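User
Please review the sequence:
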Amino acid sequence: MNISIGLRAVSNKSRLQILDWLKDPEGNFPPQVDGDLVKDGVCGCLIARKLRVSQPTVSEHMKILAQAGLVAGKRIKKWTFYKRNEKRIDELKRILSARL
């Protein structure tokens, strides 16, 4: 993992909030018409609504998180659904712990 990309991804409070919400998608988001919250991930439009920002803003946040490998996106119809990549998140935690 490129530590600088990982640090950039988690250096924003909105992105940290999104990662926290995605830990418990069923507890933090309403049911979706398409896609299972746990299996498929959370629709970007629901994340935008909860964060109270535009969809392009959420798309940029999710792009940065995805570049770091901290989330994975899945297309269903015309929507993108996001879920955490626990393996990469744990890897970033280990790297940070070792360096601090």
